[in-house]
Design a protein that fits this description.
Number of strands of chain B: 11
Mean pLDDT of chain B: 93
Radius of gyration of chain B: 13 Å
Number of helices of chain A: 0
Mean pLDDT of chain A: 91
Oligomer: heterodimer
Distance between the termini of chain B: 36 Å
Shape of chain A: globular
Structural class of chain B: mainly beta
Low-confidence stretches of chain A: none
Order of helices and strands of chain A: EEEEEEEEEEE
Largest interface: A-B, 24 and 26 residues
Distance between the termini of chain A: 38 Å
Number of helices of chain B: 0
Strand content of chain B: over 45%
Number of strands of chain A: 11
Largest sheet of chain B: 7 strands, mixed
Helix content of chain A: under 10%
């Protein structure tokens, strides 16, 4: 079983739609959860960071963590064509090798005008 | 806004040659990282560096790889004898507190 699983998509939505992106994980040591956005041939850009179960909102983005189910989500409201990118979930733990970021494979999102 | 900068953006080299990839982390950050992403694959951790020494490294980071912070601003990744399979995007990242990691735009390494 992979440590972090993410549906690669591609996901295509109309402008203004609500987008839901998800990752599941198997390693209970993961305590910190991040969402990155990556445009083609660019570096990952940190969007959201959270370490507790529940929701965290930042503008049009909401990150949700459910540690009991080992499931995290990113919601994008009022999606825009500029949101078209690959979205990566990433996570890390408190100590030892779990400190390094482990990434999902990324979900490719296209928002159509 | 502070950012991680990486040079060069694209490096082409012959198999067996040494390459040095350079990074300037965000100035008040203390933790530094290298990741790589082979085309079409996941971003993979290579190494983390703190207080002038390696704190963690992955199985990928073998004896061909080394890292150095030669001065107060630069952080480098050296590959001693490049192989075809080293072709990838290499990302440098830095963190103030080992939680939020900020990535550079990457160096695309092409080994011919």
């Amino acid at each position: 079983q992979k440590e972090v699983e993410q549906d690669p998509g591609p996901l295509s939505v109309p402008e203004g739609a609500i987008v839901s992106l998800n990752c599941t994980y198997s390693n209970s040591a993961f305590q910190y959860f991040m969402w990155y956005r990556q445009y083609s041939r660019k570096g990952p850009e940190l969007l959201m960071y959270t370490y507790s179960s529940g929701n965290k909102e930042d503008g049009r983005f909401t990150a949700q963590v459910d540690k009991s189910s080992k499931y995290i989500s990113l919601f994008i409201r009022d999606s825009q064509p500029s949101d078209s990118a690959t979205y990566l979930c990433a996570m890390s733990g408190f100590s030892g090798s779990a400190r390094q970021l482990t990434f999902g494979s990324g979900t490719q999102l296209t928002v159509l005008p | 806004e502070p950012e991680v900068t990486q040079t060069p953006s694209h490096q082409v080299t012959q198999m067996g040659q040494e390459v040095i990839l350079r990074c300037v982390p965000i100035s008040n950050h203390l933790y530094f990282y290298w990741y790589r992403q082979i085309l079409g694959q996941k971003v993979e951790f290579l190494v983390s560096f703190y207080n002038n020494e390696i704190s963690e490294k992955s199985e990928i980071f073998d004896d061909q790889f080394s890292v150095e912070r030669p001065d107060g601003s630069n952080f480098t990744l050296k590959i001693r004898s490049t192989k075809l399979e080293d072709s990838a995007m290499y990302f440098c990242a830095s963190s103030e507190d080992r939680k939020e990691e900020y990535f550079g735009a990457g160096t695309r390494l092409s080994v011919l």
